[in-house]
Every structure is written in C-alpha cells, then in structure tokens.
Design brief:
five-stranded antiparallel sheet; binds adenosine-5'-diphosphate
C-alpha cells in the first residue's frame, strides 16, 4: 500500500480572489479545503453558521435596501452570497463557491460601464465622423459657390465688355456707313456733273454753230446740228432717268412682291425692242409665287437693264439667245444668260459710267444702279462669263417667309 500526501493548502491561497469564499468537501462529509481556514473539518452548514449570519433585523434592513433582490442563497461573514456548486472529478468531491452580490453587481456594473463607455466612444466617433463629413461638405459647397460667384462676376464683366465693344463697333459702323455714303455721293456727283457737263458744253458749241449756219442760210447743216443737240439731250435724259430710278429710294415702300410678276412686267416694257430683233428668248419660272420684299418698279428697272445689255451684247451674234431662269427656295434667284461676246472687263463692270459702248449707246450707269437697287433690297447682283459663250448675270434676293408670302 502506497500512501501519497498532498499539500492542498497552496490551492487555498490561490483561490482567494476568485470568489469571496470557496470550500471543497467530500460528499456529505466535512470541508477538506476552504479559503476560511477555520471552516476546515466542519460540515458546510456548521461552517457557514460559525460566522454569525445577519440578525433578523439586519436581514430586514438589507431586504428593504435591496428589495428587488432574490432571497440570498447563504450568508458569509454576514453578507448575502450566491452559492455555486461544482463537482470535482475526484472521489466525488464538491467545490462550492460563495460570491457576494456586491461583487457580482460590481462586475456587471463594470461590464455595463465598459459597454456604455464603448458605445459612447462609438457614438462620439460616429458624431465626429458625421460632423466632419458635414463640415467637409459645407466647405466644399462654400468653395463651389465661391467659384460660381467668381465665374459669374467674370462673365458679367465679360458681357459688359462685349456690350461696350459692340456699341463701339456700332458707332464705328455708322460712322463708316456715313463716310462711305458721303464718299459715294461725292464720287457720284463728280461723275454725274462730268457726264452732264460734257453734253452741255457740246450742245453750247452745236447751238453756236447752228446759229451761224442759220445766219448763213445753210439749213441742212443747221438741221444736223440740231439733230446732234437732240441726241445729246437724249443722252442727258438717259442719265437723269437712271439716276431718278435709283434716287427713288424706297426702304419704307417695300411690299411683298412676286418676282414672276416683276419679270413679266420688265418683259412687257422691253417687248418693242425685243420684237425688232430676231432673238430666241426663253423664260423658266416656277408655277408657284416667288415672294420677296421689294419695289416692283425698281426691280423691273434692274431686269430691263440686264435685258437691254443682253440685247446689246448679242447684236453681232448670228443666232442670238437670251435665257431667263427664275428659282425660288431658300432665296429668289434670277439668272439672265446671253450668248454674246461675254464681259471684257469684269473688274470695272459695276463702276458708275463704265461703258464699252459707243457714245449715245450707253452711259455706263445701268449695272451700277442695278447693283445698288439689289443691294438696297438685301440681295446681290453678280456677273460672270459663261463657259460656253456670253455673259451670265445672277440676282439673288432673300425670300419672304411663308406666312407673309401667302398674303
Ligand atoms: P451701259 O450699258 O450703259 O454701258 P452698264 O452699266 O449697263 O452701262 O454696262 C456697263 C458695261 O458692262 C457695258 O458697257 C458692257 O461693256 C458690259 N456689259 C454689261 N452687260 C453685258 C453683257 N450682257 N455682255 C457683255 N458685256 C456686258
């Protein structure tokens, strides 16, 4: 037989701190080990009774202080304790732990305090993050609105600068238009007075000659002088007629006008001259009106000038042809084409008093005045030589919008 002696006292000292009191006892037997050294050898009940349990009065006071608590399992050193029993897998020994409610409460409170603290820290962090985000967003919006405000200011400054430049430009344009009008007027008056002075001087000479011839009874010669004077008067009236048609400015007189009617009107005016010649005249125009905002008489004047030039240009051609082609659409386009000799000087064509015709046949005002009229109507008159033969004149005018053209 072997006897083993174990010193269990070390356990006793290490248990201290786990619970308020710990005992180990054999089943139904006395206490073998205990944190209260005086309990060893006693049965559990006797050990617990050793230290006086609270008196009835003390228990009543405790109960009223802590009325929510359940009845205490036992009392150690006069304090209500919770009893926990564990079975030790050695010879059926029991281990009983006594823990005061105060200790448990302290621990629970500590855990609760920890949890509350954790939760508070979490809340604080969350609030901090949220407020940081809000602050960042507010800063971002402020920055953005500042940028926008700056942009707005810059735009406004730019707009006002542009408006100023535009106003300056308008003033400059008006000045230029006025000075170019004055320049044109000066040029025109110089050219007109020169053109009119020439026949006037010639007429004076012819009249003086005719007077002498009459005095000498040379009637035939005097008659031819009168004839020359008559021609000169004709030339002068041609000049004044052209100028008159141009001078009849009519910005306010512009009315919706069907170009087809004006074209037919011009052909009617030219009919006597056309009939005198063996000429093939073709006319192509749309079946629906080609509406512009214009003045019929002045537009007819343009077409008459173009037709007269075409007639002159084809005077030496074997089979003369004139083509009129009218097109509506985005713009009203009238093309006058002939198979004459073509234009010899395209650069000076529209210059006032530029003519290649013999004196008496042309004064060189037709195209200058025609392009002036077309410009006044907001269009343009251009000329070119055709690839085949002859000249092509093209009048382009802004079309009148549909609602007005239906009137
Ligand atoms: P005018 O007919 O009195 O000479 P215009 O201004 O009408 O004055 O014409 C100026 C010049 O342009 C003409 O002298 C002529 O040389 C040229 N011209 C005009 N129309 C034509 C044409 N259809 N073909 C060739 N040349 C032309």
């Amino acid at each position: 037989m072997i006897v083993v002696e174990v010193d269990l006292r070390k356990f006793q000292s290490t248990w201290a701190g786990i619970s308020d009191a710990v005992i180990v006892s054999s089943p139904q037997g006395p206490i073998l080990l205990a944190t209260e050294k005086s309990w060893v050898g006693l049965p559990e009940k006797a050990a617990l009774a050793r230290r006086s349990a609270p008196s009835a009065i003390e228990r009543a006071i405790q109960a009223t202080q802590d009325w929510t608590a359940l009845p205490a399992d036992a009392y150690v050193r006069g304090k209500a304790v919770m009893r926990q029993e564990l079975l030790v897998p050695f010879r059926g020994w029991n281990m009983v732990l006594f823990t005061t409610y105060g200790g448990i409460r302290q621990r629970v409170n500590a855990v609760l305090a920890l949890e509350i603290m954790g939760f508070s820290i979490f809340l604080a962090l969350a609030f901090y993050q949220l407020s940081r985000q809000t602050l960042m967003r507010a800063l971002f919006f402020q920055q953005e609105s500042d940028d926008l405000r700056q942009l707005n200011i810059r735009l406004q400054r730019e707009i006002s600068e542009r408006q100023k430049v535009e106003k300056n430009l308008q003033v400059a344009e008006q000045t230029l238009a006025q000075s170019s009008k004055l320049a044109a007027l000066g040029e025109m008056s110089a050219a007109v007075s020169h053109e009119l002075n020439q026949p006037l001087a010639a007429m004076k000479t012819y009249l003086a000659g005719a007077k002498l011839l009459l005095q000498r009874k040379r009637l035939d010669e005097a008659f031819s002088s009168f004839q020359r004077i008559d021609d000169l008067i004709g030339r002068m009236s041609a000049i004044t007629r052209q100028l008159k048609s141009y001078a009849r400015k009519g910005g306010e007189d512009l009315v919706p006008l069907d170009v087809r009617l004006a074209l037919n009107g011009a052909l009617a005016i030219m009919e006597p001259q056309l009939k005198l010649r063996q000429i093939s005249l073709s006319k192509t125009m749309p079946s629906s009106p080609v509406m512009i905002l214009g003045d019929q008489l002045r537009f007819e004047q343009v077409v008459v000038n173009l037709l007269r030039n075409a007639l002159d240009a084809t005077s030496t051609v074997v089979s003369p042809e004139i083509e009129l082609f009218l097109l509506g659409g985005e713009t009203a386009t009238l093309t006058v084409r002939d198979n004459g000799d073509g234009i010899s000087d395209l650069d000076n064509l529209f210059e006032p008093f530029f003519t290649t015709k013999k004196p008496g046949d042309g004064v060189g005002l037709g195209l200058a005045i025609s392009s002036g009229i077309i410009n006044d109507l907001g269009g343009r008159l251009v000329a070119r030589n055709s690839d085949a033969a002859g000249a092509v004149f093209e009048v382009t005018l802004p079309i009148l919008n549909n609602e007005k053209s239906e009137i």
